[in-house]
Write a structure and sequence with these properties.
By secondary structure, the protein is mainly alpha-helical. It has helices at residues 20-33, 45-52, 59-72, 90-98, 104-108, 111-145, 151-170, 185-188, 190-199, 213-230, 269-277, 298-306, 311-320, 325-352, 354-382, and strands spanning 7-12, 38-43, 80-84, 205-208, 238-241. It has 15 helices and five strands. Bound molecules: tryptophan (TRP). Residues 9-13, 42, 44, 47, 194, 197-198, 206, 208, 212 line the site of tryptophan.
Amino acid sequence: MTEQRKVILSGNRPTGRLHIGHLFGVLENWAKLQSEYETYFEVADWHALTTKYRDTETMKQDIEDMVIDWLVSGISPEKSVIFVQSHIKQHAELHILFSMLVSLSRLLRNPTLKEYIAEKETLKLKTEKKTLNKIAANITHKIINENEERRGVLEGKIKEFVLSELSENLFSEDTEVPYGDIVNYGFLGYPVLQAADILIYRAHVVPIGKDQLPHLELTREIARRFNSLYGQVFPIPEPLLNEFAKVPGTDGRKMSKSYGNTILIGEDTQSLKKKIMSSYTDPQKIRKNDPGHPDTCPIFQYHLIFNRENTDIIKNECIKGIRGCVQCKKEIFSKMDEFMEPYREKRATFEKKRDLVWDIIKEGDKKARVKAEETMEIVREKMRINY
Ligand code: TRP
C-alpha cells in the first residue's frame, strides 16, 4: 500500500507577475514541499474579486502571469495540483454551508476587515478634503472675479454651487464603494471562503504569511464546529509560516507592488539595469570615499543573496570608503542579470504559448475537482442534505 501523504493547500490572489520577494519568501518554500506532501496551489480569483470586482479586464492575464511565475519557479504540474478557484464550483457550495456556522460578530472581529475599513475611511476622508479644497479654490476664484455690487447674488450662487459640488463629488458613482458603504458582503465572507478553500481538500498544513494567521484561525474554528455538529470530517489545519523574505525593495522598504520597488522574477536586462542603477543606497555615502553602512543598504542585501562569495570583501571596502556605490551596483547588476537568465528562458516559452498555461490549469482543475467533490459528498451526507 502506498503511504498516504499529508495534504498541503496554499494560494494567492492573481496579482500578475511576481517579484523576487515572492520567489525567496514563498515560491521556493512551496517548491520544496512538493516532494513531501500532496500539494494543492490555488489561484484565488474569487478572493481577488471581493475588492477588484470593478476592474476585471486584466484578471485573465493576471492569472496567466502569476501561474507562469509559479511554473518557472519550480512549482511542477507533475508534483502539484495547480488550479483556479472559480473553476471548482464546490468551493462556493462549501462556502455557503460554512456561512451558517459563523456569526456576524465573529466576522466583524477579523483584523483584515478592520484594517480594510480603516484604510477606506482614510481614503474617504482624503477624498472629502480634496473636494472641500477644490470648492474653496473655486469660491475664491468666483469672488475675485465679481464686483462689489453683486455680492448678494453671488452668495446665492455660491450656496447653489457648493451643494452641487458636494453631491457630485461625495455621492458620485465612481468612488470605489458608494459613500457610506464600506464593506461588501463578499469581503465580509472572505475568510469563510478561504476556510472552504482549505478544508475542501482536507488540508493538514497551510503555508501562509503571518498576515494570514487570523484567517487560518477562523478556518480551524469552522472545522472544529463542523466536526462537532455533524461528525469528524476535517483535519484541523496547521499553519506553516513562510520564511520571512529578507530581500528589500529598491527603495529599501519591504518589496511590494504597491510601493513600486519590485524586481520581477525574470526581469528583463534593460529594466533590471535601470532599477538597480537607480536604487536607493546609503544616503550618508555621497562620495566614493565616504564610509558606507552596508547593513541598511538594499544593494548590499542583494549582494548577500546573489553574490554571497564576495560579501566580506565588499562590506569591508564599503565601510572603509574604498568602494563606491556605482561599482557596487554594476557588480550586483551583472550577478542578478545572470541569475534571471533561466527564469527568462522558461518564461519566454510560456509567453509564446499562453494556451500551455491553460492546459496545465485544466489538468489541475480536474484533479482538484475530484478531491473537492469527494469531500462534498461526505459533507452532504454528514449534514443529511444529500437528497
Ligand atoms: N487570502 C490569501 C492571501 O491574500 C489567499 C488565499 C486564498 C489563500 N485562499 C487561500 C491562502 C487558502 C492560503 C490558503 O494571501
